[in-house]
């Protein structure tokens, strides 16, 4: 990598490698936008094709969905606070806020698993109709991303506890923060297009 | 380092408050309000786009000065979002709007079919 290393600015941007890795991660996020767009398109096209299964109107409950949304919104905020602490060189603050973020992420996952199990009990499963296939694949892909993100964050926490803040570890934390905020962006659209519209129409 | 000495990042707090308010507004519009369905959908979609903007610009450091704009490949992000819009709008346009899927008497999906059938029959006769 290019030898020039900046002396100022955020650690994760100081080397050419750091900047290029962050750029590469943005390209990955652009590809994720397209991945989720295909799932949203599938879901939208299959809307209303519930066959003999219950309709979303019957199953969706505003309460649990709002709780999940607030958990994820708050975790996105605490993740931002973690990066803010990282920028101040405060490893302890970074780790604390990251653990809070993780706890909120696990809370979200718990509610989502509960929700899916509940739907399956009510007769709406992956195989029961085209609509529910679209729903479970879309929401499930998001849930899978959150699950991966929590595992990733745990590994990074172990690494930073051992190595402290360097150009490399701060770049890794910066990238997982981008990932986490991005999952919130996707959730906002699932919340709006799937749950809210499902309760309106 | 030590250039961000602020204890609390104000733009994050504002962004968080904004996203909470917009989520509650969207939920209110969908669940409680008496607005016509079309307006509810337009309203909550606009709120979703605004919230995505809050995440991208206030949380994801897309435009920060210290890192020289955050190494964001704007052209590729634009292409990602443009492709997403084309995929979703195009799929709905070709697969759903104006078509009757033959599920008469079935539940759901019957709101716009009849009013749009007449003009769409001519357009899509080549399929």
Automatic annotation (TrEMBL), chain A:
Keyword terms of this UniProt record: Cell membrane, Membrane, Oxidoreductase, Transmembrane, Transmembrane helix
Domain Heme-copper oxidase subunit III family profile stretches: 1-199
Q: What does this protein do?
A: Catalyzes quinol oxidation with the concomitant reduction of oxygen to water.
Specify the protein name: Quinol oxidase subunit 3
- Chief subcellular location equals membrane
Record-listed E.C. numbers:
1.10.3.-
Please report the organism this UniProt entry assigns to the protein: Halobacillus kuroshimensis
Q: Catalytic activity annotated for this protein?
A: 2 a quinol + O2 = 2 a quinone + 2 H2O
From TrEMBL, chain B:
Per the record's keyword annotation, is Zinc included, yes or no?
no
Alphabetized, the UniProt keywords read: Cell membrane, Membrane, Oxidoreductase, Transmembrane, Transmembrane helix
The main enzyme category here is oxidoreductase
Localization recorded for this chain is: Cell membrane
Chief location: membrane
Bilayer topology reads: Multi-pass membrane protein
Task: Report the catalytic activity.
Answer: 2 a quinol + O2 = 2 a quinone + 2 H2O
Asked if the record carries the keyword Lipid biosynthesis, the reply is no
Mention any Pfam family matching this sequence. COX4_pro
Enumerate the NCBIfam families for this protein: QoxD
Q: Which family does it belong to?
A: Belongs to the cytochrome c oxidase bacterial subunit 4 family.
Question: What PANTHER family does the database record attribute to this sequence?
Answer: CYTOCHROME BO(3) UBIQUINOL OXIDASE SUBUNIT 4 (PTHR36835:SF1)
What name goes with this protein? Quinol oxidase subunit 4
